[in-house]
Amino acid sequence: MILSIKRYINWLISIFKKEKEITIGFYGEPNVGKTSLANRISIDFTGEPVGSVSIIPHETRTVLKKEKVQININNFKLIMNLLDMPGMSVKVDYRDFLDYGMSYEQAQVRAKEATKGIIEAIKFLDKVDAALLVIDSTSDPYSQTNFILLGNIEARNIPVIIVANKIDREDSNSKRIKEIFADYPVVEISALTGENMELLYNAISRFSKRRK
Amino acid sequence: MYVCIKCGTPKKPGEDRCKCGSTVFVRYDKKLKKRSENGNRKINHKKTKTIENIKIVRKGVFLINLDALTKKENLIIKDEKGIYYIHIPVRIQNIPDFDKP
Fold it and tell me: Do B95 and A127 touch (CB under 8 A)?
């Protein structure tokens, strides 16, 4: 009886509370702009970046965290814990890094760290309240990695927003992403220029309001 | 053609929910599906029926079965010499507590 009264009170509080805290995971393939996006959000609200970005794939090889990023949208206070994940892929090959001037040894170490990072990112699926699946709108969205990630995120009942990034590029085709993932909320943005970021913040805010 | 994201069953006209329970269908394009994500090199872990979910082809080259790993299967690594390393359990090991609301 006491327990049900407590639950009822908590439910009432959750209705009127205008503040929520959520943990958001940034997932996607390497070099789609996950860290750029995390940096953009973090710099917009805290002035500090989350991690370094690079044209070399698998620059992020451990889960990067930025806690207590606070945003206010329409009198709704949202506190976000950002988890920038290493790039997910089904193959990590050191030879891909050699073109960027790395030695064999450096490239092999990077490949090993990247693989370790992928395992870590998968483990963190259990820790996130919502996921942003970042897709490079200049490349083919039909990838094994994207579908595996989406399927598993959905199987865990984690709310997901698909972020079609790099819309500032001339060869961007974000409409194709919208067409393919028609059942998901898709937000077209440029993490580099900050274009449409307000749409993403609104989408995140709507998601977290719906979350119990 | 649209297929269920969970089980891959083609969507029937007027169907909102797949028999597996999923309500999400994605467009399936046979021509595009044939393309692998790494150029022309096609990787299909299911067809090979291997038990490892990470295969070290050679030093610095790793094949990762993301699907198996995300389904919380035990981590089984096969090295270039054919030796298997099994990590049990794989879930939530050494992950520092992250303050949740």
Answer: yes
Measure in Å the smallest separation between the Cα of A199 and chain B Cα atoms: 23
Task: Say if A161 falls within a structural domain.
Answer: yes
CB-based contact B70 A112, cutoff 8 Å: no
> Which CATH number covers residue A96?
3.40.50.300
A 48-87: CB under 8 A from B = 65, 67, 79, 81
Residues ≥6 apart with Cβ < 8 Å to B58: B80
- Residues of chain B with C-beta less than 8 angstroms from the C-beta of A144: 36-37, 43, 66
pLDDT at B41: 47
Q: Give the ranges where chain A is alpha helix by DSSP (H).
A: 2-16, 34-46, 95-98, 104-123, 144-155, 174-180, 197-210
Nearest of A67, A68, A50 to residue A59 by alpha carbon:
A50
Residue A109 scores a pLDDT above 90 = yes
b/e for A118-156, b at 16 or more Cβ within 10 A?
A: bbbbbbbbebbbbbbbbbbbbbebbbbbbbbbbbbbbee
Q: Which residue out of B42, B56, B69, B71 would a mutagenesis test of the A interface target, given it has the greatest number of A Cβ atoms within 10 Å?
A: B69
A64 part of a folded domain = yes
Whole-complex ipTM = 0.74
Is A13 within a domain?
no
Residue B86 has pLDDT above 70, yes or no: yes
- How many domains does chain A fold into? 1
Nearest-by-Cβ selection for B63 from A88, A91, A112: A91
Q: What is the pLDDT of residues B26-69, one digit of tens each?
A: 777 655 455 444 444 444 544 556 788 899 999 999 999 988 88
Mean pLDDT of A102-113: 93
Q: Is residue A6 part of a domain?
A: no
